[in-house]
Amino acid sequence: MKKKLVMLLFVVTFFVLSAASASAVVNDTVNVGLRYGASALFSANLENAVGAGYEFGYYDDDRDFVSLGETEETAISMTAAGTIYMNSSGTYSTEAPSGSYRTMGKWHIQLNGFADYPEVRDAAREWGGYPAYINGEFVLRIGAYGSQGEAEDALKAIDLEGDYSIVSSTSTGVLVTVTKTTDILFEFDCSGVLNLGVRPMEEDWEEGTSTWFKGFKYPGGFSYPRVTGGSLCVINVVNLEDYVKGVIPYEMNGSWPVEALKAQAVCARTYASRTTKHLSAYGFDVCNTTDCQVYYGRGSGVLYPSERSDLAVEETAGECLYYGGELVQDAVYHASDGGATESAQYVWGSARGYLVGREDPFEGKTAIPDYKYSVTYTASQLSDILKQKGYSVGTVKNVYVSEYTPTGNVYKITFEGTGGSKTVKGDTCRTIFYSSTYNKSVKSLRFDINGGSRKQVYYVNNQGDTLTTLQNVSVISGSGTVTALEGGSFSVLSAAGKTTLKEQAASSNQSGSFTITGTGSGHHVGMSQYGAKAMAELGYDYDEILQFYYTGITIE
Questions:
Q1: In angstroms, rounded to a whole number, what is the distance separating the alpha carbons of residues 345 and 351?
Q2: Whole-Å CA distances, 91 to 101, 181, 186
Q3: Residues 235 and 213: beta-carbon distance below 8 Å
Q4: Using CA atoms, how far apart are residues 226 and 222, in angstroms rounded to an integer?
Q5: pTM for the complete prediction?
Q6: Which of 226, 354, 438, 514 is the most exposed place for a label (fewest CB within 10 A)?
Q7: Is the Cβ–Cβ distance between 39 and 214 less than 8 Å?
Q8: How far apart are CA 200 and CA 203, in angstroms?
Q9: What are the Cα distances from residue 227, in Å, to 173, 286, 536?
Q10: For 455-493, how does the pLDDT look when each residue is reduced to its tens digit (9 = 90+)?
Q11: What pLDDT does 493 receive?
């Protein structure tokens, strides 16, 4: 949107995208992706933190657990079925390791015709095999042989009766073993139509169960979709309120005022309940990283929820944000806005009626670590960064902010080089500067660039007519009065609020470097977490915090 200086008032129209009212949460249960895609696992271990063994089964369409069998073992491993190698340390792999190892092959003797798990379990004790659930039927599998021939030779030594055959584990099977052993407890293979589910069995403990996985304790159960022929995704199937308890202390300091934590709880619950699932092809609602919301369950023993953060969840149980009677689909938040939040259309290109930028008078009322930042890039570094990200401007000669938003945040950045120029806008103005190679980044969208050469451009209408200076400029009021601009500071009023105009003299880059100085951290859209903290410290309730940062919402 371009700024008009000729008129004192603008009319700004916000187009709100429609939102569906349905929720991704089914039966008050959330599917959280812990491992998937490139992070999927060949073998995934579980160990009871609080519980008494595990049930094997699957989760139905209502996310109710259908139990097929159980074990008293407290440490188990789910591994992609096939040929499995285990080294002397008990680590499973697809390739033969160096040193000594043991093997679980993919060939088995199979006996069919069992009605239920107890019947096949008893048969397994008699014949030395293990229960399996294959395409809806209970079967007994004996051995884990490296070849069909080995299985056939073993069969000759067994006096089996009934319906038996030699079978191979398929590319959708999952094998359950006692961790760090080749003791097979169960095999599950429903051709990908159903996924293996594992749920810790409860014991007499008022806090329910929790299970160690990759250094963190998680409530609820687990599901293991297997990409055909590949590794296992790991999904935590967890009650919504338990999920929110596992988000709050990792997204916001658990020692902060409870009203700030309540605001965070409502945001986290709303985000998890939205209709649009993140990475839905993997079968879950939300992931457990900053791509969605950080989720570590009941913590690691070093990081863990506080009594205050749990209380914030309990005292807002079930509450979500709504706009126009519909569940808010983007209950986004960030660490700090640096002085003003931002409208969604200026950051991500699509307007949301509840995500409207405004000046923030609260952040300055509380201490914020590293609130101000400064980072310097050489022209060579910027040239390299742009090239890595697919922008061809040659050697960078100049970079500057070419447009600000009405709230004073950066909207457009222009790079000029020997091979042309490139202007980026929105959140790219922040993320484009990130470089793991140089370990540098720009933290927010509220900054200035020193070292570039430019003049400030002021828009006078929506047709793109501009001014490069405010000298000798006049404005016409609604009554027709013409007034010359005088003094050194000018502002305009719009539907978005007051914006201070900055006039910058041309400067030249003598050092070949560009220094970016700014305030805040994050994308600026939605709730400022430090702003919420400041408001809570000033006595505001969580609903007042949410209504300040999200325009026109209700809490239901």
A1: 4
A2: 10, 9, 18
A3: no
A4: 13
A5: 0.84
A6: 438
A7: no
A8: 9
A9: 10, 19, 46
A10: 455 555 543 344 545 666 777 766 656 677 665 556 666
A11: 64
CA 83 to centroid of chain Cα atoms: 34
Residue 135 pLDDT greater than 80, yes or no: yes
Residue 314 predicted with pLDDT over 70:
yes
Buried b or exposed e, range 5-15, using 16+ CB within 10 angstroms: bebeeeeeebe
Helices (H), 348-482: 379-388, 428-431
Q: Dig out the tokens for 136 from the structure.
A: 């809806």
CA distance 530 to 257: 11
pLDDT for 418 equals: 94
E strand or H helix at 441: none
Averaged over 225-235, what is the pLDDT? 92
Helix (H, G, I), strand (E, B) or coil at 120: helix
Q: Which segments of 54-140 does DSSP mark as H helices, in order?
A: 117-127
The confidence score (pLDDT) of residue 206 equals 62
DSSP letters for 445-485: S-EEEES------EE-STT--EES--TT-EEE-TT--EEE-
Nearest to 289 by CA among 531, 61, 38, 50: 38
Mean pLDDT of the chain: 88
Count how many Cα atoms sit within 13 Å of the Cα of residue 479 in the half-sphere of its side chain. 2
User: Closest Cα to residue 518, out of 454, 431, 456, 450?
Assistant: 450
Two tokens at 81?
A: 């079925």
The rounded distance, in Å, linking the Cα atoms of 535 and 121 is 60
Q: Check residue 6 and report its DSSP letter.
A: S
Tally the residues of the chain. 556
